[in-house]
Design a protein that fits this description.
Blueprint lengths: L4 H10 L5 E2 L2 H5 L14 E3 L4 H13 L4 E4 L16 E4 L6 E5 L4 E4 L5 H8 L4 E2 L12 H7 L6 H4 L6 E8 L4 E5 L11 H5 L7 E9 L1 E2 L14 H12 L13 H11 L3
Parallel strand pairs: 2-4, 3-4
Antiparallel strand pairs: 1-2, 5-6, 6-10, 7-11, 8-9, 8-10
Helix pairs in contact: 1-3
The protein binds flavin-adenine dinucleotide (FAD).
The site of flavin-adenine dinucleotide has 32 residues, from β3, α5 and β10.
């Protein structure tokens, strides 16, 4: 379905020619994610500023057309598929790390920053951001937030919801708002940050995030343990996690996972 001329005019007023595409071949690139679903949007836009996102949501609302936010399309649930067609806003160009504040242990980032790029930028400062989905080299912070992504480190540090202090976002009416605080304690008001995290782009479009940083451990050791059965392994995990010092990550592999890994990489 092609866009109504008035809608296209409005989009062209917000986005330069190289930040807006209605070409079906280019739109097809944004029709899928890591699920098995597929649906081609009518247009794709590439915001680079918060103000563009505010204007974009207002235009979509005026024209009653669906808007789907997209990080890097690595989610496995079809969450970034434009099932109703309409417009995909890809945040791949809104990818600046705006601030790293080590004194107050937070970083402020745009949503399109890749998880692994943030970790690389934090490392020289002696910090990391705890959420570590295995897709880190190619997934965005905005996608991590919208999916409440975790990873092996969640066992000690929690998932994304436990590691975001504040958000800047635009709701479906095109109204911008900020929620949360860049401090460890933030007790006043409703906790909209936790509500937005995991909402898969259905409540608001995130344009900026203030992330809680954790100091890197001075040293790490890896331990592999083999258990007779799953019950023995899970009861060991329960005992380990009840200790004062806990592992920074845990990964469980059953027979089938070991067989697949051996088939792929061989014995080592
Ligand atoms: C190989 C692989 C390993 C993975 N490992 C893990 C894992 O260990 N743990 C885990 O939890 N997950 C894992 N995942 C899934 C993981 O959640 C996603 O990879 C990642 O969080 C999605 O980021 P993305 O940038 O690709 O977002 P997308 O897939 O593009 O989008 C995900 C959701 O975020 C929304 N969204 C994106 N940007 C914004 C924004 N700015 N504002 C509002 N909504 C937005 C989208 O609309 C969509 O609903 C894995 C995926 C892969 C492919």
């Amino acid at each position: 379905m092609s866009l109504a001329p008035a809608l296209l005019d409005s989009l062209q007023a917000i986005f330069a020619a190289d930040a807006l595409s209605v070409e079906p071949g280019e739109c097809a690139v944004y029709a899928y994610d890591n699920s098995r679903r597929e649906s081609i949007p009518d247009a794709v836009v590439f915001p680079t500023t918060h103000e563009q996102v505010v204007a974009l949501v207002a235009v979509c609302r005026t024209h009653r057309i669906a808007l789907t936010a997209r990080g890097r399309g690595t989610n496995t649930t079809g969450a970034s598929i434009p099932l109703a067609g309409g417009i995909v806003a890809s945040f791949e160009r809104m990818n600046r790390i705006l601030r790293i504040d080590t004194d107050n242990r937070y970083a402020v980032v745009e949503p399109g920053v890749l998880n692994a790029d943030l970790q690389a930028a934090l490392k020289p400062h002696g910090f990391f951001w705890a959420p570590d989905p295995t897709s880190a080299p190619f997934c965005s912070i905005g996608g991590n937030i919208a999916c409440n992504a975790g990873g092996p480190r969640a066992v000690k540090y929690g998932a994304t919801r436990d590691n975001v202090l504040a958000l800047r976002a635009v709701n479906g009416c095109g109204e911008e708002f900020r929620c949360g605080k860049p401090t460890t304690k933030g007790a006043t008001g409703y906790d909209l940050v936790r509500l937005l995290i995991g909402s898969e782009g259905t409540l608001a479009v995130i344009t900026e995030a203030t992330l809680k940083l954790t100091p890197l451990a001075s040293d790490k050791r890896t331990l592999r343990a083999t258990y007779a059965d799953i019950a023995a392994a899970t009861s060991a995990v329960a005992r380990i996690m009840a200790q004062p010092v806990t592992p920074c990550a845990l990964e469980f592999m059953d027979d089938e996972a070991l067989r697949l890994a051996r088939n792929h990489a061989g014995e080592s």
